[in-house]
Amino acid sequence: MASMFRDDRDIERMPNDISISLLDSSAIEDELIPGWKDIYLQEKNLADEDMLKFDESIQEQIKTVRTSFKAQETSIQIEALLPSFVKMLYSEDANQPHQCAQSLSKIIDLAGNETFASVLISSLDLCPALLHVASDQYKKNTSNSLLALKVLDIFASKPLGRSIIFRSQFFYSITHILELESTSHSANEQTVKNCLSILNKLMRSLSGEISAPLRAHGLIEILTNFLNSRDPKILLLALNSLIFVCSKDSKSRIRMARTEFGVQSRAG
Q1: Which Gene3D superfamilies does the annotation name (predicted)?
Q2: CA-CA to 77 of 20 to 30 Å: which in 97, 126, 221, 234?
Q3: Which CA distances in Å does 94 have to 7, 43, 86, 148?
């Protein structure tokens, strides 16, 4: 689908604090789907009293069409705004973290909708930018990293999202973040939950592909550190992850038992 931007120079000329509300959505819609608006307006202007002339099944069909057009309209705007979102995600590298946070906040709002989430996940540039913020910016700005992890957790619920995370080998970065959090005296519980949630979703469908590499990166010992957590969700996610990683490997089960015994001894 065409972009509202003529070339990369148009993106560069955009103001850094571009507001979504300032974009001319009508121009975007007319450019991307010429003539669609005439159909939409004819249907939208159907008065309520006219609706009552139809039986309930026809009324439901009209409502469905209205909802579909509205979703299509928003999806078009989202796709047109994606270059701006991506640019703002990288803005922290230029010491402008507020722009990164602004973009992440809007992406989280949109990702909560099934249709809009699909538009976001299918972007070739958005996921790499989110992975960059979640991992490379982790030590620099943990709040933005946490927001990026929240989005990736949503994306991991979709096959395409899991595929992108797998192909980027982001699970190595997740392991590193979990390792740092497991040894921190002020661990961020939400960061731990999001990382473990992403791992669980990956391993449910890609266990054979990632279990061995994760074992080699010390994930068993890292996960076992969370078994003393007082947060029931962290405990459940850590246990599920251990089951996925160790269930088909006897040596890993022995490693887990030994590590768990050591953790319990230290706790006692």
Answers
A1: Leucine-rich Repeat Variant
A2: 97
A3: 22, 47, 14, 18
Fill in the DSSP letter of residue 234: H
* pLDDT digit string, tens, across residues 88-135: 888 866 677 788 888 998 898 888 888 788 888 888 788 888 988 888
Residue 119 lies in a domain: yes
User: Among the three residues 168, 199, 217, which one is the final residue of a domain in this structure?
Assistant: 168
CB of 77 closer than 8 Å to CB of 70? no
Residue where a domain stops, chosen among 133, 153, 168? 168
Helix (DSSP H) and strand (DSSP E) numbers for the chain: 15, 0
- CATH no. for residue 29? 1.25.10
pTM (two decimals)? 0.66
CA distances to 33, 78, 192, 202, 250 from 256, rounded to whole Å, are 57, 45, 19, 20, 10
Question: Which of 72, 143, 139, 141 lies closest to 108 in space, CA to CA?
Answer: 143
With a CB cutoff of 8 Å and minimum separation 6, the contacts of 239 are: 227
Measured CA to CA, the distance from residue 187 to residue 118 in angstroms comes to 32
Residue 34 is given by DSSP the state: T
Say which residue the tokens 């669609």 belong to. 36
Number of compact structural domains in the chain: 2
